[in-house]
Amino acid sequence: MQSKQCQTNNSLSNLWNNTNFAVWLVLGVFICFCLYILRSVLLPFMLGIILGYLFDPLATKLEKFKISRTWATILVFLIVILIAVPVVALLVGLIDGQLSIFISAAPKYMASFAQKLEPVMRSLQEYIPGLEADNLKTAFSQNISQTFQLSGKFLQGLFKNGMAVVNVLSLLLITPVVAFYMLRDWDVFVQKVDALLPRKSKKNIRAIFKKIDKAISGFIRGQLSVCVILGTYYALGLKLIGLELGLLVGFIAGLISFIPYVGSITGFVLSIILALSQFSGYTKVIEVMIVFGIGQFLEGNFLTPKLVGDNIGLHPVWVMFSLLAGGVLLGFLGLMIAVPVAAIIGILLKIGIEKFKKSKLYLEE
């Protein structure tokens, strides 16, 4: 009789666990479906939520000085505006000037770079008899210079007219409002979500949320700091060695350094091409190598371990795949949420694997 009751309890427990899993799965699929359907209007709201999440620790610290949450939020906004507006204005002027130089100088740089490649092409002609070095040189200098000019004009137009990427008006009007209310009421939202958690699983779900929060905060706050520091270092370093367009290349390298290896490799290759195009000899090429070598040393040994640490634990291939998949599915919105979503999936998979290894299915002989 007692064994039958235990079997009944186990069956009910298994049914409850299966039901819980099904509910969470359906909820996850529904959220993904809503994101896909509403992707064209979600960007300002998602950006506002991210800003609220990003500055929540600062508002919480201000509350310790007996300041109300509303006034703490206002102070955070004032601090951000006082810092961000001059920095953005400075960056806009610098990048616009660099893009203008890039557009006008691209043909000259490409012709010079093609001339430097001529000995290499002559050497290749010895191994490939049908290869015409002069034709390759002409085609390379003409086509690549046109490509770079068009790319520069596109970037300049994109930079000046953000309507091509996002609705700037909605970003300027909606995002600050969403960010303000999210930052002011962040603790309220957390409490309401916590109150909806199933009582039996609340402890486990809280532990999962803490791991997810650690991973996402490690990426957003840590990686953002790494990008800013690296972008500033590369821009100033390349400018100091006399590389024209060094500010633009350094900014690009820092901006995309959150993608493993892509930022540093892109910046390095562009800098080498510019150094070969602008200067005779290989002294500047060596200086570029030193700048990026020091940058990689600082990133690998100090910046990433200290600012990001092991909070994410995502393989670089998984990060790149998540960014590509997010961009294809949701556009710019997908790029913004790709790595945090990948971190959440990674944590859930780790927890699932741990539970699987403790299950009878894994332990059976």
Describe the model.
The chain is mainly α and 365 residues long. It has a domain at 41-191. Helix content is 85%, strand content 0%. It is built from 13 helices and no strands. Helix 2 packs across helix 3 (69-127). The longest helix is centred in the first third of the chain and has 59 residues, at 69-127. The two termini are 29 Å apart. The relative contact order is 0.09.
How do the helices and strands line up, and which of them pair or pack?
Elements: H1 2-37, H2 43-63, H3 69-127, H4 133-160, H5 168-184, H6 186-196, H7 202-240, H8 246-255, H9 262-278, H10 283-308, H11 316-330, H12 332-358, H13 360-363
Helix pairs in contact: 2-3, 2-5, 3-4, 3-9, 7-8, 7-10, 7-12, 8-9, 9-10, 11-12
Radius of gyration: 26 Å
The secondary-structure element order is HHHHHHHHHHHHH
Shape designation: globular
What number is the mean pLDDT? Answer: 77
Please summarize the sheet with the most strands: none
Category by helix and strand content: mainly alpha
| Helicity, as a percent range | over 70%
What is the strand content?
under 5%
Give the strand tally. Answer: 0
Low-confidence parts lasting 5 or more residues at pLDDT below 50? 4-16, 161-166
**Spatial separation of the terminal alpha carbons:** 29 Å
Number of helices: 13
